[in-house]
Protein backbone atom coordinates (compact mmCIF):
# COMPACT_ATOMS: atom_id res chain seq x y z
CA UNK A 1 0.00 0.00 0.00
CA UNK A 2 1.29 3.43 -0.92
CA UNK A 3 2.05 5.82 1.95
CA UNK A 4 1.35 9.48 1.21
CA UNK A 5 1.60 12.65 3.27
CA UNK A 6 -0.52 15.71 2.40
CA UNK A 7 0.91 18.84 3.92
CA UNK A 8 -0.41 22.39 4.15
CA UNK A 9 -0.32 25.39 6.43
CA UNK A 10 -4.10 25.34 6.92
CA UNK A 11 -5.49 21.84 7.43
CA UNK A 12 -9.12 21.93 8.53
CA UNK A 13 -9.43 19.27 11.25
CA UNK A 14 -12.27 18.80 13.77
CA UNK A 15 -10.04 20.43 16.41
CA UNK A 16 -9.24 23.51 14.37
CA UNK A 17 -7.27 24.90 11.44
CA UNK A 18 -3.53 24.31 11.77
CA UNK A 19 -0.32 23.45 9.91
CA UNK A 20 -0.37 19.67 9.59
CA UNK A 21 0.55 16.59 7.61
CA UNK A 22 -2.22 14.13 6.83
CA UNK A 23 -0.66 10.68 6.71
CA UNK A 24 -2.47 8.35 4.35
CA UNK A 25 -2.07 4.60 4.04
CA UNK A 26 -3.83 3.43 0.87
CA UNK A 27 -7.38 4.83 0.96
CA UNK A 28 -7.55 5.86 4.61
CA UNK A 29 -6.13 8.54 6.88
CA UNK A 30 -3.69 6.95 9.30
CA UNK A 31 -2.88 10.02 11.39
CA UNK A 32 -2.77 13.80 11.34
CA UNK A 33 0.61 15.01 12.63
CA UNK A 34 2.83 18.09 12.74
CA UNK A 35 4.53 18.76 9.37
CA UNK A 36 7.96 17.89 10.82
CA UNK A 37 6.84 14.43 11.88
CA UNK A 38 6.71 12.71 8.50
CA UNK A 39 8.88 9.63 8.21
CA UNK A 40 10.79 9.19 4.95
CA UNK A 41 8.61 6.25 3.93
CA UNK A 42 5.94 8.74 2.84
CA UNK A 43 5.55 10.36 -0.57
CA UNK A 44 5.02 14.03 0.34
CA UNK A 45 2.55 16.40 -1.41
CA UNK A 46 3.23 19.86 -0.03
CA UNK A 47 0.48 22.40 -0.77
CA UNK A 48 2.20 25.20 1.11
CA UNK A 49 -0.09 28.07 1.96
CA UNK A 50 -3.27 26.43 0.65
CA UNK A 51 -6.01 25.02 2.83
CA UNK A 52 -6.97 21.35 2.92
CA UNK A 53 -10.61 20.69 3.78
CA UNK A 54 -12.35 17.35 4.12
CA UNK A 55 -13.89 16.22 0.82
CA UNK A 56 -17.34 17.78 0.68
CA UNK A 57 -20.48 15.65 0.87
CA UNK A 58 -23.59 16.75 -1.01
CA UNK A 59 -26.65 14.98 0.29
CA UNK A 60 -29.02 16.71 -2.13
CA UNK A 61 -28.30 16.12 -5.81
CA UNK A 62 -30.49 15.19 -8.76
CA UNK A 63 -28.35 13.02 -11.03
CA UNK A 64 -31.35 11.97 -13.19
CA UNK A 65 -29.81 8.62 -14.12
CA UNK A 66 -31.07 6.17 -15.34
CA UNK A 67 -33.87 7.43 -17.54
CA UNK A 68 -33.07 11.12 -17.90
CA UNK A 69 -29.30 11.00 -18.34
CA UNK A 70 -29.67 13.62 -21.07
CA UNK A 71 -30.48 16.02 -18.21
CA UNK A 72 -27.29 15.12 -16.31
CA UNK A 73 -26.10 11.55 -15.55
CA UNK A 74 -23.53 9.96 -13.25
CA UNK A 75 -20.57 10.73 -15.48
CA UNK A 76 -21.08 14.48 -15.67
CA UNK A 77 -22.56 15.01 -12.20
CA UNK A 78 -19.63 13.29 -10.48
CA UNK A 79 -17.15 15.13 -12.72
CA UNK A 80 -18.67 18.48 -11.73
CA UNK A 81 -18.67 17.31 -8.11
CA UNK A 82 -14.94 16.47 -8.15
CA UNK A 83 -14.23 19.88 -9.72
CA UNK A 84 -16.26 21.50 -6.94
CA UNK A 85 -14.41 19.77 -4.08
CA UNK A 86 -17.04 17.08 -3.41
CA UNK A 87 -16.08 13.46 -2.84
CA UNK A 88 -19.54 12.05 -2.12
CA UNK A 89 -22.99 12.67 -3.61
CA UNK A 90 -26.34 11.36 -2.48
CA UNK A 91 -28.84 11.17 -5.30
CA UNK A 92 -32.47 12.14 -4.90
CA UNK A 93 -34.98 9.41 -5.80
CA UNK A 94 -36.84 11.42 -8.44
CA UNK A 95 -36.16 12.71 -11.94
CA UNK A 96 -34.57 9.35 -12.75
CA UNK A 97 -36.71 6.66 -14.38
CA UNK A 98 -37.56 4.41 -12.69
CA UNK A 99 -37.75 6.61 -9.59
CA UNK A 100 -35.89 5.00 -6.68
CA UNK A 101 -39.03 3.80 -4.93
CA UNK A 102 -38.42 0.04 -5.23
CA UNK A 103 -35.46 -2.28 -4.73
CA UNK A 104 -35.57 -3.09 -8.45
CA UNK A 105 -35.16 0.61 -9.24
CA UNK A 106 -32.20 0.82 -6.84
CA UNK A 107 -30.56 -2.03 -8.75
CA UNK A 108 -31.21 -0.21 -12.04
CA UNK A 109 -29.48 2.84 -10.55
CA UNK A 110 -26.47 0.77 -9.50
CA UNK A 111 -26.20 -0.57 -13.04
CA UNK A 112 -26.42 2.98 -14.46
CA UNK A 113 -23.68 4.24 -12.13
CA UNK A 114 -21.31 1.36 -12.68
CA UNK A 115 -17.86 2.49 -13.82
CA UNK A 116 -18.92 6.11 -14.43
CA UNK A 117 -18.38 7.88 -11.12
CA UNK A 118 -15.50 10.17 -10.23
CA UNK A 119 -16.68 10.49 -6.62
CA UNK A 120 -18.46 8.15 -4.22
CA UNK A 121 -22.23 8.11 -4.17
CA UNK A 122 -25.35 6.73 -2.54
CA UNK A 123 -29.06 6.91 -3.37
CA UNK A 124 -31.95 8.05 -1.20
CA UNK A 125 -35.09 5.90 -1.50
CA UNK A 126 -38.42 7.54 -2.29
CA UNK A 127 -41.59 7.44 -0.21
CA UNK A 128 -44.57 7.81 -2.56
CA UNK A 129 -48.30 7.18 -2.25
CA UNK A 130 -48.16 3.44 -2.87
CA UNK A 131 -44.76 2.01 -1.86
CA UNK A 132 -44.93 1.55 1.90
CA UNK A 133 -44.29 -2.18 1.43
CA UNK A 134 -40.91 -1.36 -0.18
CA UNK A 135 -39.60 0.87 2.62
CA UNK A 136 -38.07 -1.87 4.76
CA UNK A 137 -36.62 -3.65 1.73
CA UNK A 138 -35.03 -0.45 0.42
CA UNK A 139 -33.39 0.10 3.81
CA UNK A 140 -32.07 -3.47 3.81
CA UNK A 141 -30.77 -2.97 0.27
CA UNK A 142 -28.62 -0.04 1.42
CA UNK A 143 -30.35 3.34 1.00
CA UNK A 144 -29.27 5.78 3.74
CA UNK A 145 -32.78 7.21 4.15
CA UNK A 146 -35.90 8.38 2.33
CA UNK A 147 -37.32 11.43 0.59
CA UNK A 148 -40.92 12.50 0.16
CA UNK A 149 -42.84 15.45 -1.24
CA UNK A 150 -45.83 17.10 0.42
CA UNK A 151 -46.60 18.93 -2.81
CA UNK A 152 -46.66 17.80 -6.43
CA UNK A 153 -42.99 17.50 -7.49
CA UNK A 154 -43.91 18.51 -11.02
CA UNK A 155 -42.33 15.53 -12.74
CA UNK A 156 -43.69 12.21 -14.01
CA UNK A 157 -42.65 9.09 -12.15
CA UNK A 158 -42.80 10.41 -8.57
CA UNK A 159 -45.93 11.23 -6.57
CA UNK A 160 -46.51 13.46 -3.59
CA UNK A 161 -47.93 12.08 -0.35
CA UNK A 162 -50.92 13.41 1.54
CA UNK A 163 -50.95 13.50 5.33
CA UNK A 164 -53.02 10.32 5.36
CA UNK A 165 -50.62 8.47 3.04
CA UNK A 166 -47.71 9.70 5.09
CA UNK A 167 -49.31 8.39 8.26
CA UNK A 168 -49.41 4.89 6.82
CA UNK A 169 -45.79 5.10 5.63
CA UNK A 170 -44.29 6.63 8.78
CA UNK A 171 -44.34 3.54 11.03
CA UNK A 172 -42.32 1.75 8.31
CA UNK A 173 -39.87 4.65 8.07
CA UNK A 174 -39.53 4.88 11.86
CA UNK A 175 -38.73 1.15 12.06
CA UNK A 176 -35.74 1.56 9.73
CA UNK A 177 -34.19 4.22 11.99
CA UNK A 178 -33.23 6.12 8.82
CA UNK A 179 -34.01 9.80 8.21
CA UNK A 180 -37.00 11.02 6.19
CA UNK A 181 -36.10 14.02 4.03
CA UNK A 182 -39.12 16.16 3.32
CA UNK A 183 -39.87 18.72 0.64
CA UNK A 184 -41.86 20.89 3.00
CA UNK A 185 -44.43 22.92 1.09
CA UNK A 186 -48.18 22.22 1.37
CA UNK A 187 -50.37 22.55 -1.72
CA UNK A 188 -53.21 24.46 0.01
CA UNK A 189 -51.50 27.85 0.39
CA UNK A 190 -49.87 27.48 -3.06
CA UNK A 191 -53.16 26.66 -4.77
CA UNK A 192 -54.99 29.53 -3.06
CA UNK A 193 -52.25 32.00 -3.98
CA UNK A 194 -52.03 30.75 -7.56
CA UNK A 195 -55.79 31.10 -8.07
CA UNK A 196 -55.57 34.82 -7.41
CA UNK A 197 -52.74 35.11 -9.96
CA UNK A 198 -54.60 33.65 -12.94
CA UNK A 199 -54.27 36.89 -14.90
CA UNK A 200 -50.96 38.02 -13.48
CA UNK A 201 -47.82 38.61 -15.52
CA UNK A 202 -45.82 35.39 -15.16
CA UNK A 203 -42.70 36.90 -16.67
CA UNK A 204 -42.35 38.79 -13.39
CA UNK A 205 -40.44 37.12 -10.58
CA UNK A 206 -42.75 38.70 -8.02
CA UNK A 207 -45.67 36.74 -9.48
CA UNK A 208 -43.84 33.45 -9.00
CA UNK A 209 -42.77 34.44 -5.50
CA UNK A 210 -46.36 35.28 -4.54
CA UNK A 211 -47.50 31.89 -5.85
CA UNK A 212 -45.31 30.04 -3.35
CA UNK A 213 -45.81 31.94 -0.09
CA UNK A 214 -43.88 31.44 3.16
CA UNK A 215 -47.11 30.04 4.57
CA UNK A 216 -46.81 26.92 2.36
CA UNK A 217 -43.46 26.07 3.93
CA UNK A 218 -44.51 27.05 7.43
CA UNK A 219 -47.65 24.91 7.38
CA UNK A 220 -45.73 21.92 6.01
CA UNK A 221 -43.01 22.22 8.64
CA UNK A 222 -45.61 22.46 11.41
CA UNK A 223 -47.29 19.31 10.11
CA UNK A 224 -43.98 17.44 9.93
CA UNK A 225 -42.96 18.46 13.44
CA UNK A 226 -46.31 17.20 14.72
CA UNK A 227 -45.84 13.87 12.91
CA UNK A 228 -42.25 13.64 14.16
CA UNK A 229 -43.53 13.98 17.72
CA UNK A 230 -46.17 11.35 17.09
CA UNK A 231 -44.21 8.71 15.16
CA UNK A 232 -40.68 9.24 16.48
CA UNK A 233 -38.81 9.16 13.15
CA UNK A 234 -35.75 11.22 12.16
CA UNK A 235 -37.01 14.29 10.31
CA UNK A 236 -34.88 16.29 7.90
CA UNK A 237 -36.20 19.45 6.22
CA UNK A 238 -34.67 19.89 2.77
CA UNK A 239 -33.93 23.24 1.13
CA UNK A 240 -35.35 25.55 3.78
CA UNK A 241 -36.19 28.84 2.12
CA UNK A 242 -38.38 30.72 4.59
CA UNK A 243 -36.60 32.12 7.63
CA UNK A 244 -40.00 32.39 9.33
CA UNK A 245 -39.78 28.70 10.24
CA UNK A 246 -36.52 29.09 12.17
CA UNK A 247 -37.99 29.81 15.64
CA UNK A 248 -40.26 26.75 15.48
CA UNK A 249 -37.46 24.52 14.22
CA UNK A 250 -35.22 25.78 17.00
CA UNK A 251 -37.94 25.13 19.61
CA UNK A 252 -38.56 21.63 18.23
CA UNK A 253 -34.92 20.77 18.67
CA UNK A 254 -34.91 22.19 22.20
CA UNK A 255 -37.87 19.93 22.90
CA UNK A 256 -35.70 16.97 21.89
CA UNK A 257 -37.24 16.12 18.53
CA UNK A 258 -34.87 14.53 16.02
CA UNK A 259 -34.94 17.22 13.35
CA UNK A 260 -32.22 18.52 11.07
CA UNK A 261 -32.34 21.31 8.50
CA UNK A 262 -30.53 22.18 5.30
CA UNK A 263 -30.49 25.23 3.07
CA UNK A 264 -28.85 25.79 -0.31
CA UNK A 265 -26.37 28.19 -1.95
CA UNK A 266 -29.07 29.99 -3.98
CA UNK A 267 -31.02 30.95 -0.85
CA UNK A 268 -27.80 32.23 0.73
CA UNK A 269 -26.59 34.14 -2.31
CA UNK A 270 -29.57 35.48 -4.27
CA UNK A 271 -32.28 37.92 -3.24
CA UNK A 272 -35.71 38.23 -4.85
CA UNK A 273 -35.28 42.00 -5.25
CA UNK A 274 -32.49 41.52 -7.78
CA UNK A 275 -34.10 38.77 -9.86
CA UNK A 276 -34.98 40.37 -13.18
CA UNK A 277 -38.24 39.71 -14.97
CA UNK A 278 -37.89 36.70 -17.26
CA UNK A 279 -34.75 35.46 -15.43
CA UNK A 280 -36.01 31.88 -15.20
CA UNK A 281 -32.52 30.48 -14.54
CA UNK A 282 -33.22 31.61 -10.97
CA UNK A 283 -36.45 29.65 -10.61
CA UNK A 284 -36.49 26.96 -7.94
CA UNK A 285 -38.97 25.65 -5.39
CA UNK A 286 -39.40 26.79 -2.72
CA UNK A 287 -38.46 30.15 -4.23
CA UNK A 288 -35.60 32.50 -3.47
CA UNK A 289 -37.15 35.07 -1.12
CA UNK A 290 -36.20 38.58 -0.01
CA UNK A 291 -32.71 39.84 0.80
CA UNK A 292 -33.81 40.27 4.43
CA UNK A 293 -34.93 36.62 4.50
CA UNK A 294 -31.51 35.62 3.13
CA UNK A 295 -29.74 37.39 6.00
CA UNK A 296 -31.98 35.58 8.48
CA UNK A 297 -30.99 32.23 6.95
CA UNK A 298 -27.36 33.20 7.57
CA UNK A 299 -28.36 33.90 11.14
CA UNK A 300 -29.91 30.41 11.27
CA UNK A 301 -26.56 28.96 10.23
CA UNK A 302 -24.78 31.07 12.83
CA UNK A 303 -26.98 29.93 15.71
CA UNK A 304 -27.01 26.30 14.55
CA UNK A 305 -30.72 26.01 13.69
CA UNK A 306 -29.65 25.22 10.12
CA UNK A 307 -27.21 22.31 10.15
CA UNK A 308 -25.93 22.15 6.61
CA UNK A 309 -25.60 23.65 3.16
CA UNK A 310 -26.25 21.33 0.22
CA UNK A 311 -26.67 22.22 -3.43
CA UNK A 312 -30.03 20.79 -4.58
CA UNK A 313 -28.15 20.55 -7.88
CA UNK A 314 -31.09 20.11 -10.23
CA UNK A 315 -30.15 20.48 -13.89
CA UNK A 316 -32.26 20.08 -17.01
CA UNK A 317 -31.78 20.50 -20.75
CA UNK A 318 -31.35 24.25 -21.46
CA UNK A 319 -34.58 24.51 -23.46
CA UNK A 320 -36.61 23.55 -20.37
CA UNK A 321 -35.46 26.71 -18.63
CA UNK A 322 -37.62 28.54 -21.18
CA UNK A 323 -35.20 31.42 -21.55
CA UNK A 324 -36.77 32.64 -24.78
CA UNK A 325 -40.23 32.89 -23.18
CA UNK A 326 -39.07 33.96 -19.71
CA UNK A 327 -42.24 32.55 -18.16
CA UNK A 328 -41.88 31.63 -14.47
CA UNK A 329 -45.00 29.45 -14.56
CA UNK A 330 -43.75 27.06 -17.25
CA UNK A 331 -39.94 27.10 -16.86
CA UNK A 332 -38.29 24.17 -15.09
CA UNK A 333 -37.53 24.93 -11.45
CA UNK A 334 -34.04 23.93 -10.42
CA UNK A 335 -30.56 25.41 -10.14
CA UNK A 336 -27.35 23.50 -10.88
CA UNK A 337 -24.35 24.50 -8.77
CA UNK A 338 -22.17 21.48 -7.91
CA UNK A 339 -18.95 22.90 -9.32
CA UNK A 340 -19.27 26.39 -7.79
CA UNK A 341 -21.06 25.87 -4.46
CA UNK A 342 -17.90 25.85 -2.32
CA UNK A 343 -16.48 29.16 -3.63
CA UNK A 344 -19.94 30.69 -3.61
CA UNK A 345 -20.54 29.82 0.04
CA UNK A 346 -16.99 30.87 0.91
CA UNK A 347 -17.52 34.22 -0.84
CA UNK A 348 -20.63 34.87 1.24
CA UNK A 349 -19.45 33.25 4.49
CA UNK A 350 -16.00 34.84 4.67
CA UNK A 351 -17.41 38.34 4.47
CA UNK A 352 -19.74 37.53 7.36
CA UNK A 353 -16.85 36.38 9.56
CA UNK A 354 -17.26 32.63 9.21
CA UNK A 355 -14.23 30.38 8.79
CA UNK A 356 -13.32 27.27 6.83
CA UNK A 357 -14.25 25.27 9.95
CA UNK A 358 -17.85 26.42 9.51
CA UNK A 359 -17.79 25.40 5.85
CA UNK A 360 -16.41 21.96 6.73
CA UNK A 361 -19.23 21.51 9.24
CA UNK A 362 -21.99 22.69 6.89
CA UNK A 363 -20.74 21.08 3.67
CA UNK A 364 -18.90 17.93 4.80
CA UNK A 365 -19.55 16.69 8.35
CA UNK A 366 -23.25 17.65 8.51
CA UNK A 367 -24.36 16.05 5.25
CA UNK A 368 -22.13 13.00 5.91
CA UNK A 369 -23.86 12.40 9.21
CA UNK A 370 -27.30 12.74 7.61
CA UNK A 371 -26.35 10.30 4.85
CA UNK A 372 -25.06 7.63 7.22
CA UNK A 373 -21.42 7.96 6.18
CA UNK A 374 -20.34 10.19 9.07
CA UNK A 375 -17.93 7.59 10.43
CA UNK A 376 -15.96 7.50 7.17
CA UNK A 377 -16.48 10.84 5.46
CA UNK A 378 -16.71 14.51 6.39
CA UNK A 379 -13.65 14.83 8.67
CA UNK A 380 -9.90 14.93 8.35
CA UNK A 381 -9.06 12.51 11.17
CA UNK A 382 -7.51 9.09 11.68
CA UNK A 383 -9.63 6.27 10.31
CA UNK A 384 -11.56 8.42 7.83
CA UNK A 385 -11.42 8.05 4.06
CA UNK A 386 -8.56 10.07 2.54
CA UNK A 387 -11.00 12.49 0.86
CA UNK A 388 -9.72 16.06 0.63
CA UNK A 389 -10.08 19.27 -1.28
CA UNK A 390 -7.07 21.53 -1.69
CA UNK A 391 -8.52 25.03 -1.67
CA UNK A 392 -7.02 28.47 -2.21
CA UNK A 393 -9.22 30.65 0.02
CA UNK A 394 -7.72 33.92 -1.24
CA UNK A 395 -7.87 33.12 -4.96
CA UNK A 396 -10.63 34.52 -7.16
CA UNK A 397 -12.14 33.47 -10.45
CA UNK A 398 -14.93 34.41 -12.81
CA UNK A 399 -17.64 31.77 -13.38
CA UNK A 400 -17.45 30.76 -17.03
CA UNK A 401 -19.06 27.86 -18.88
CA UNK A 402 -15.82 25.90 -19.04
CA UNK A 403 -15.65 25.78 -15.24
CA UNK A 404 -19.07 24.17 -14.72
CA UNK A 405 -18.27 20.61 -15.91
CA UNK A 406 -21.85 19.31 -15.63
CA UNK A 407 -23.70 18.23 -18.77
CA UNK A 408 -25.34 21.52 -19.75
CA UNK A 409 -23.25 24.56 -18.78
CA UNK A 410 -26.31 26.57 -17.76
CA UNK A 411 -26.05 28.71 -14.64
CA UNK A 412 -27.49 31.89 -13.15
CA UNK A 413 -23.99 32.63 -11.83
CA UNK A 414 -22.09 33.03 -15.12
CA UNK A 415 -19.95 36.16 -15.05
CA UNK A 416 -19.84 36.43 -11.26
CA UNK A 417 -16.50 36.77 -9.50
CA UNK A 418 -16.20 34.26 -6.65
CA UNK A 419 -13.66 33.94 -3.90
CA UNK A 420 -11.84 30.64 -3.34
CA UNK A 421 -10.43 28.25 -5.92
CA UNK A 422 -10.62 24.44 -5.82
CA UNK A 423 -7.15 23.27 -6.84
CA UNK A 424 -7.23 19.50 -6.36
CA UNK A 425 -9.71 16.96 -5.06
CA UNK A 426 -8.56 13.60 -3.68
CA UNK A 427 -10.90 10.63 -3.44
CA UNK A 428 -9.68 7.95 -1.04
CA UNK A 429 -6.06 8.96 -1.61
CA UNK A 430 -6.28 9.29 -5.39
CA UNK A 431 -6.55 12.53 -7.37
CA UNK A 432 -10.04 12.92 -8.84
CA UNK A 433 -9.58 16.52 -10.07
CA UNK A 434 -6.32 18.37 -10.64
CA UNK A 435 -6.37 21.94 -11.98
CA UNK A 436 -9.03 21.41 -14.63
CA UNK A 437 -8.19 17.77 -15.41
CA UNK A 438 -9.75 14.48 -14.30
CA UNK A 439 -6.85 12.02 -14.14
CA UNK A 440 -7.28 8.27 -14.54
CA UNK A 441 -10.34 6.08 -14.67
CA UNK A 442 -13.44 6.98 -12.62
CA UNK A 443 -12.74 5.63 -9.11
CA UNK A 444 -15.98 6.45 -7.34
CA UNK A 445 -18.15 3.72 -5.85
CA UNK A 446 -21.37 3.34 -3.96
CA UNK A 447 -21.20 3.95 -0.25
CA UNK A 448 -23.55 1.56 1.48
CA UNK A 449 -24.87 2.94 4.73
CA UNK A 450 -24.23 1.57 8.22
CA UNK A 451 -22.71 -1.83 8.75
CA UNK A 452 -23.09 -2.83 5.12
CA UNK A 453 -20.13 -0.61 4.12
CA UNK A 454 -18.80 0.14 0.65
CA UNK A 455 -19.80 -2.33 -2.00
CA UNK A 456 -17.55 -2.94 -4.96
CA UNK A 457 -20.14 -1.67 -7.46
ZN1 LIG B 1 -34.14 18.71 -4.84
Describe the structure.
The protein has 457 residues and is an alpha/beta fold. It contains twelve helices and 17 strands. The protein has helices spanning 74-83, 103-113, 135-141, 163-176, 187-195, 205-211, 214-231, 246-254, 265-269, 291-302, 341-350, 356-370, and strands at residues 3-13, 16-25, 28-33, 43-46, 51-54, 56-61, 86-91, 120-123, 125-126, 146-149, 179-183, 234-237, 259-263, 308-309, 388-398, 417-427, 430-434. Strands 1, 2, 3, 4, 5, 15, 16 and 17 form an eight-stranded mixed beta sheet that branches. Strands 9-10-11-12-13-14 form a six-stranded parallel beta sheet. Strands 6-7-8 form a three-stranded parallel beta sheet. A hairpin with a 2-residue loop joins strand 16 and strand 17. The chain is globular and about 70 Å long. Bound molecules: zinc ion (ZN). The site of zinc ion has 5 residues, from loops.
Amino acid sequence: MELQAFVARRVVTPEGIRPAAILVDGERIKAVVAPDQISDRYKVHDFGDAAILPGLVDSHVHINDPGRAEWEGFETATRAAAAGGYTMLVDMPLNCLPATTTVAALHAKRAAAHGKCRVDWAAWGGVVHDNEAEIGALAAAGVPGFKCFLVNPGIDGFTMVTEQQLRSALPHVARTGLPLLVHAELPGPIDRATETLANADWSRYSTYLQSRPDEAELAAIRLMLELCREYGFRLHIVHLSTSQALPELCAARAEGLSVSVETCPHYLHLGAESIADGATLRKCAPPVRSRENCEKLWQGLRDGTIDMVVTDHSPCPPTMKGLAEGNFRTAWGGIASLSVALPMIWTEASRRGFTLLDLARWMAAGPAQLAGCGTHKGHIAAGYDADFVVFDPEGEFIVTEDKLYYRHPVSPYLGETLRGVVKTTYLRGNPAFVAGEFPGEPGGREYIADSRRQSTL
